[in-house]
Structures are given as structure tokens and as C-alpha cells.
From TrEMBL:
InterPro entries, sorted: GvpL/GvpF (IPR009430)
Organismal lineage: Bacteria, Bacillati, Actinomycetota, Actinomycetes, Kitasatosporales
Domain of life: Bacteria
Region (Disordered): 139-160
Protein family per UniProt: Belongs to the gas vesicle GvpF/GvpL family.
Name under which the protein is recorded: GvpL/GvpF family gas vesicle protein
Protein's cellular compartments: Gas vesicle
């Protein structure tokens, strides 16, 4: 029988009694705080076997959603934490006899200054995800690069000519949207940084046919400034109706947490 000789780590957070009460994680596993004496820091964990979670795409998506839900619940209770990515495991060291909890505690104690500094810096702050694109057809119509008469005339052409005209129109729309996206990017980035404390570029989570990327980013925002970010995006939308805006969050600051206990996990996943 395989024993629970590892810890699955969800987050590092201030040591607050009761912060994990009633919270469950992957597959409904009950979570607890692993305290690190003398640091004021605890880890949100469940006891685990020393093997990473593996499964099909649907199962992994479910596990990730369960982890995010658990981390968000505890984050809302304590106001600041450093979330871990999926499958962070700390195993016991059979060579030295140190338990997983001892190894994790040693790492936290070693990195104590950095961890507590990050927890202070992220207190009262959240992550927002912003994805801004341009609808190419709408942008080209506003610019005059796509014309209704041309579409009407194409109906009298041969199938081959219609395909050629459609490709030419699509390329014009793409070029027009690309130029406009370049123009809009810098101004939108500047306005968002006026209300956010940090901005990190990310690849878009969604790619929609017929749209051109303008900006895709994670924002670190004070909780009281979430509405200000929404106002910036609303103003941008009003100024350019061809914009398509996806605004997600608030979430724990996944993109801005630097602490990762990589060294303790190596024996667990190697």
C-alpha cells in the first residue's frame, strides 16, 4: 500500500487559524494548513502520495478548476497568498529521514524574507485578465476598406473570381485591423498602467477567427481599483466600437507570485 508521504501544495499564506476550515481540494480532499513555526507563514496542503496527478484532458481541467476554487476560497478569507501551479508536490527524503512537512518547512524558513515580502506586497490586491481584440470586418468598414458595392458586384463573377475577391478583401481587412491595433496598443497599455500596479503580457486564451489581437495581459490591481480598470476598458470601447473586450477576474495573483518550492519537489516528481 502506498503511503501519504508527500504534500500537495496549493499556496503559501499568512498563518491564520481556521483559514482552511471546511475547504476541499482535488477530488474532494480535505485541506489543512502546514504551519512553519517562527515564520508566520503556512502552506495550504493536502496529504498525498509522492506521484503527480495524471489523467486525460477533461480530468486535468477538473483538477485545475478544483485547485483554483480552493485557493480562491482561502484567498478571500486571508486577503493575501502566493498560489502555486498545478502539481506542486513535496516528498519525504528517504535518505535523510526528513518528512515532507520538514522539507517544506525548511524551504519556507530559508525563503522567509522573500515570501513574507511578497505576501505584504500582494495584500489587498487581485489579478485581472484583459484580452482586447479588433473585429476586422467592423474595423475595415469604419475605415472604408471594405465596401458593400464590391460584395454586390462579386455576385456577378465566376466562382474563382469571387474567391479571389474574398481573399483580397480579407487581406485588406487584416491589414487595416493590424495598423489600427498597433496604434491602439500603446495608448491602452498606458491607460491601464495608470490604474494598475503591474501589467504582464500573456498569450491570448481565446483566438477568434476574424479578430486581430490588440492586447492580452494580466493586471495586478488593488481591490478598490477593479472598477477603474472597467472604466478604462469601457472608455476604449466607446472610442473604438470595433474593439472586442474580455475582462476576467478578480482572481488570486497567480501571474505575480514568484515563490515556487521547486527544490523540495524534485524527488517527488523525478
Amino acid at each position: 500500500m502506498t503511503e501519504n508521504t508527500a504534500l500537495y501544495v496549493y499556496a503559501l499564506l499568512p498563518d491564520r487559524q481556521g483559514a482552511a476550515d471546511g475547504v476541499t481540494g482535488l477530488d474532494g480532499r480535505p485541506l489543512r494548513l502546514a504551519e512553519v513555526p517562527g515564520t508566520g507563514v503556512a502552506a495550504l496542503v493536502h496529504d498525498a502520495t509522492p506521484a503527480p496527478y495524471q489523467g486525460g484532458d477533461a480530468e486535468v481541467r477538473r483538477w485545475v478548476a478544483e485547485q483554483n476554487e480552493a485557493v480562491t476560497t482561502v484567498w478571500e478569507r486571508v486577503g493575501s497568498l502566493l498560489p502555486m501551479t498545478f502539481n506542486v508536490l513535496v516528498a519525504e527524503d528517504t535518505d535523510t529521514g526528513r518528512s515532507a512537512e520538514q522539507r517544506l518547512g525548511e524551504w519556507v524558513a530559508e525563503q522567509h524574507g522573500d515570501i513574507t515580502g511578497q505576501l505584504r506586497a500582494l495584500a489587498g490586491r487581485c489579478e485581472l485578465r484583459v484580452e482586447v481584440t479588433l473585429d476586422r470586418a467592423a474595423a475595415a468598414t469604419a475605415d472604408g476598406a471594405s465596401s458593400a458595392p464590391e460584395r454586390t458586384e462579386a455576385g456577378d463573377r465566376s466562382p474563382g473570381m469571387r474567391r479571389l475577391l474574398a481573399k483580397q478583401r480579407e487581406q485588406r481587412e487584416k491589414n487595416t485591423a493590424g495598423r489600427l491595433a498597433d496604434t491602439l496598443h500603446a495608448g491602452l497599455r498606458r491607460r491601464l498602467l495608470a490604474v494598475a500596479e503591474d501589467l504582464r503580457d500573456r498569450g491570448p486564451a481565446h483566438r477568434v477567427p476574424g479578430e486581430t489581437d490588440v492586447l492580452s495581459a494580466a493586471l495586478l490591481v488593488r481591490n478598490q481599483d477593479v472598477d477603474a480598470v472597467g472604466a478604462v476598458l469601457s472608455e476604449a470601447q466607446a472610442g473604438e466600437p470595433a474593439l472586442r473586450i474580455r475582462f476576467l477576474g478578480p482572481w488570486p495573483p497567480y501571474s505575480f507570485a514568484e515563490a515556487r518550492p521547486q527544490r523540495p519537489t524534485e524527488p517527488a516528481v523525478g
